[in-house]
Design a protein that fits this description.
Keywords: Cell membrane, Membrane, Transmembrane, Transmembrane helix, Transport. Its main location: membrane. Belongs to the drug/metabolite transporter (DMT) superfamily. Small multidrug resistance (SMR) (TC 2.A.7.1) family. Gdx/SugE subfamily. With 105 residues, this protein is mostly helical. It has one domain. It is built from 4 helices and no strands.
Length: 105
Amino acid sequence: MAWIYLLVAGLLEIVWALAMKQSHGFTRLVPSVITLVGMIASFWLLAAAMRTLPLGTAYTIWTGIGAVGAFVIGITFLGEQVSAMRIGAAVLIVSGLVLMKLSSS
């Protein structure tokens, strides 16, 4: 169950990061509220996952899901730059996540 909590927490991190971008510095109400609710839910689920998972594993995977997810959303929906180096960096992050998962018991 901890891994499911961690996955959902990571997905919520993507949601709140996108909502924060759309809030234009917290000047728009709805995206600002989504950001705050998403943050609280993401942190709560991360804390729930950490009851069972090691700190290093849980935090690394949570931030990795958020970082790569925000990267993909930025390229896909926000027209951010695509380059071989940026894609390579994302591949390295995903590789690290896979290794972190494989190394945990």
